[in-house]
Design a protein that fits this description.
By secondary structure, the chain is mostly helical. It is built from twelve helices and no strands. It holds the Pfam family HAND.
Length: about 280
């Protein structure tokens, strides 16, 4: 009331928006001034909060959480300008304990979670590239792309091989990596007469690399699935059981011995007949 605050209309309430706005404004207009005791309590509470943190500091804190993820306090604490790491850590602890009290917490959390999803996606791509490279001793010469039906007509396999290998070498998650990749392409001696590749800008190279990364991830999934099935076959056994102590024909040794015992006397008997 003292600052002449006007309640904004919440369009999400539909037909009730005007009614709710008038009711909230009436509460403010008819509010009684704070007593001396309440004013003293207000001043005491203000000293307990983060009075040195401005709206700009708050927005910057949200952006670095989006950039690094809420758990990366080492980077977050370094990137909030004008605040020491200890101040940022203390602020972060209170923020995550009481963030549900903010009116626009859904928007804020959506912003942070979108950033964290991007971080997870970059980590997944890095693992896919690492796995692909580990299968070759000399990937710049040996690496093969499993194109399937997605070869395309513009880029050659040699160009794609170089893009994938150089992207991995430069570091996929580095800032401005595709601009560095463009410089690497123009400096590569094998492409000194390749005007198509040398004329690609950073955005075009990024689009091509995104396509190649998708192919590599698909190839990795197929390899993992094949290895899983082979491992399952090996651990699954033959499905049948053999008789312990059986001979080559599957007949137990004890039976074979009995047959042998029965055969010997018959031979001796024949010998006796011939002698007589």
């Amino acid at each position: 009331k003292t600052v002449n605050y006007k309640v904004p209309k919440n369009s999400d309430l539909g037909s009730e928006a005007n009614k709710v706005q008038r009711e909230e404004q009436r509460k403010i207009d008819e509010a009684e001034p704070l007593t001396e005791e309440e004013l003293a309590e207000k001043e005491s509470l203000l000293t307990q909060g983060f009075i040195s943190w401005t709206k700009r500091d708050f927005n910057q804190f949200i952006k670095v959480n989006e950039k690094y993820g809420r758990d990366d306090m080492e980077n977050i604490s370094r990137e909030v300008e004008g605040k020491t790491p200890d101040e940022v850590i203390e602020y972060s602890t209170v923020f995550w304990e009481r963030c549900h009290e903010l009116q626009d917490i859904d928007r804020i959390m959506g912003q942070i979670e979108r950033g964290e999803a991007k971080i997870q996606r970059r980590a997944s791509i890095k693992r896919a590239l690492d796995s692909k490279m580990a299968r070759y001793r000399a990937p710049f010469h040996q690496l093969r792309i499993a194109y399937g039906n997605n070869k395309g007509k513009n880029y050659t396999e040699e160009e794609d091989r170089f893009l994938v290998c150089m992207l991995h070498k430069l570091g996929f998650d580095r800032e401005n990596v595709y601009e560095e990749l463009r410089v690497a392409v123009r400096s590569a001696p094998q492409f000194r007469f390749d005007w198509f590749l040398k004329s690609r800008n950073a955005h075009a190279l990024q689009r091509r690399c995104n396509t190649l990364i998708t192919l590599i991830e698909r190839e990795n999934q197929e390899i993992e699935e094949k290895e899983r099935l082979e491992k399952k076959k090996k651990t699954g056994g033959t499905g049948g059981s053999t008789v312990v102590g059986s001979g080559a024909g599957g007949t137990p040794k004890s039976n074979q011995k009995r047959k042998a015992d029965n055969t010997v006397p018959s031979n001796d008997k024949n010998k006796k007949k011939r002698k007589s």
